[in-house]
Structures are given as structure tokens and as C-alpha cells.
Write a structure and sequence with these properties.
There is one protein chain. By secondary structure, this protein is mostly helical. It has one domain: Potassium Channel Kv1.1, Chain A (2-Layer Sandwich), CATH 3.30.710.10. It has a 3-stranded mixed sheet. Helix 2 packs across helix 3 and helix 6 runs antiparallel to helix 7. The longest helix is centred in the C-terminal third of the chain and has 17 residues. It is globular and about 35 Å long.
Amino acid sequence: MTSVQEANRQMLKQEICTDVEFLVGELPDRKLFRAHRYVLMSRSPVFFAMLTGSMQEAQSVGPIEVPDGTPSAFGEFLRYLLILLARYNISLRSSHIDWTVKSVSYLASCYIVHVAVSTCSIPIIHVG
């Protein structure tokens, strides 16, 4: 039997039944991400307001722009929201490790996901 985390990971990876899109980063490194509104709204009060209220993003037909995040950090952030696990693909250079953790932590702060902020402040890194 598949765990809920594994099922959610597959839903995100294969973009099954996604209903919201994010365009992340700046040219030339922009990337489109597809996600599930229900998950985002249930994990973040900012996403809840953004996707259900009178904010511009709730009325938007196209992708939601996220210019201040990097595609790699936003992908890890979405993965964390969906399966409560962040995976940091890192090189052996510590500056890259710090940057990835700080980038995910920054997004978690912006979207008021306190657990992810706490997780990113602890130096636990999974490679792979």
C-alpha cells in the first residue's frame, strides 16, 4: 500500500489534477510549476488568502508570478508543503548548502509556513 506522502509526491511529480500555476524566477531562468490549491491553502494562510479572497491572484486566469524566488527553492518549497519533506540537492561547497536552505526558508517566511522555517534553521540536509 502506498503511503499518503508517496501518493502526494507522485501527484506533484506527475502534475495530476493540478489547478494552479506559478511562474517562478526571472528570465532566462523562469520555470512554470503546477500545484494543488487545496494543499497550498491548507498549509499556508497566505496561499489561502491569495487563492480564495479578493487578491489579484484569486482572480487571475494565468500563472501566478513569483519573481523573488528561484525555481530550485520554489520546487523544494512545494515538495515540502505537499509531503513535509525537503530534499536539498547540494554540491560539496557549503555556500551552496546555505543558499538553498536560506532560499526555502525565505519562501516559508513569505507564505507563513512556520514549520518549514524551523526545519530550514536546523542544519539537517538530505542529499539526493
